[in-house]
Design brief:
The protein is mostly helical. The protein contains 18 helices and no strands. It is found in: Cell membrane. It is a multi-pass membrane protein.
């Protein structure tokens, strides 16, 4: 891991900086009810100051983190919000929700949402799946009259578990490559562990979550009526057309993942699929397609489509700022060396085997916020009979500090 700025801080000082920084953010958000964007920004400056970064170095690192995060995740969130708004205004989301609610009872609906989340989470990154699922989750909650947690938690459990445990996601694939493990065995073990994980963390846990956090679906960009219907267009797109639009990025990214596994580098087909399956491009294509299949097909004229797209962005401004500030905080941790030195702090003789394989990615997740580099710390000498379980253990680190921010 590259450290841009030289710091004279010791490992102990960096550990103190990280602890105080995290404590500052949590305290400002929970006790003083300060907006997470400001809390993360202040926490970043606190970490940098304790770690002996100069003011100019702190500003440079924070700005770099904000810029890189907005350029990647921020664009994906914006594109997903546009698709979500078009789904809502065209009535396409109503078509999907009507089908779900009519086929599932209130008892089985959380299980259906868990299955949908897992199906979407198999080929796409968590962030992409999330922006695709949000409008469906909100409308299903409105229409079914169930608590938000009963619908959202199962969907996110399915989405998250598949991302963490099952190839073709980056973490498991990296671990498989470095350990020379068998793809089929790892896939089978991943699914075997994923199923009970989704069941426990999804439909079952959602019962408790609904009691702990009794909230209804927020308006966000879905201005639904008292019956939970959100469409403002004169007509509705067909269910098949709506489903095709929503699943387009899923299919494109699945094609890219399969090509990366089975096709040799340099082949034209793989190059094309890699290009089409790039998350940003896949979502952009889906957004452009949605303006026709969801907009014009439902009777919306150009102005209505343009107004819908414009109305989708202001509600997510706060979310983008929080995500960007999180990227700035992450970059401060990286550039001070905290993200690199946490291994020596956590290194102790007993932490071996599966414990070490889980410890490293969890430390990664807490220190630099990324969930796409799991498995990078595996070594060739780890290629033992437990290689496949280690792939799974090393790939599963969904410790979301961001849930604290969302809760507030």
């Amino acid at each position: 891991m590259h450290v841009i700025f030289e710091t004279t801080a010791s490992t102990g000082q960096l550990s103190v900086a990280a602890i105080i920084g995290f404590a500052t953010i949590v305290t400002l958000i929970t006790k003083f009810k300060l907006h997470p964007f400001l809390s993360l920004t202040i926490g970043s400056l606190v970490v940098g100051a304790i770690a002996d970064l100069s003011l100019s170095e702190m500003v440079a690192a924070y700005s770099k983190g904000v810029g890189s995060t907005v350029a990647s995740v921020g664009v994906l969130i914006a594109l997903g919000a546009i698709i979500g708004k078009l789904l809502a205004d065209s009535g396409g989301a109503d078509e999907i929700v009507d089908t779900l609610v009519s086929k599932a009872s209130p008892t089985t609906l959380p299980w259906a949402m868990a299955f949908i989340g897992a199906a979407i989470g198999l080929p796409v990154f968590f962030e992409i799946g999330l922006v695709l699922l949000v409008p469906v989750i909100l409308l299903v909650t409105r229409r079914s009259k169930l608590p938000l947690m009963r619908v959202a938690i199962p969907a996110l459990a399915g989405l998250s578990t598949m991302h963490a445990l099952v190839p073709p996601h980056p973490g498991p694939l990296a671990a498989i490559a470095l350990l020379k493990a068998d793809l089929g065995v790892t896939l089978g073990l991943g699914v075997l562990i994923a199923i009970p994980t989704v069941v426990v963390a999804g439909p079952l846990f959602s019962r408790l979550a609904a009691r702990w956090v009794p909230v209804d679906a927020p308006d966000l960009f879905l201005n639904s009526d008292e019956n939970g219907r959100s469409g403002i267009a004169s007509g509705h797109p067909k269910f098949s057309v709506t489903l095709l639009t929503v699943l387009l990025p899923v299919v494109l990214m699945m094609g890219k993942a399969l090509a990366d596994i089975f096709a040799a580098k340099g082949i034209a087909v793989r190059s094309v699929l890699d290009f089409l399956g790039e998350p940003m491009f896949a979502l952009l294509l889906a957004t452009l397609l949605a303006t026709f299949t969801l907009g014009k097909a439902s009777g919306m004229d150009r102005k209505a489509v343009s107004d819908s797209v414009g109305a989708s962005l202001p509600p997510i401004a706060g979310i983008l700022l929080i995500v960007a500030a999180g990227g700035g905080f992450k970059q401060i941790l990286v550039d001070t060396g905290i993200a690199n030195r946490h291994y020596s702090v956590l290194d102790f003789p007993a932490a071996d085997g599966l414990a070490r394989r889980c410890r490293d990615p969890v430390g990664d997740r807490l220190s630099d916020g990324s969930n796409r580099h799991r498995g990078r710390h595996f070594r060739a000498d780890d290629n033992q009979p437990a290689a496949c379980p280690r792939c799974i253990a090393g790939a599963s680190d969904r410790l979301w500090f961001g849930f604290l921010l969302a809760r507030q």
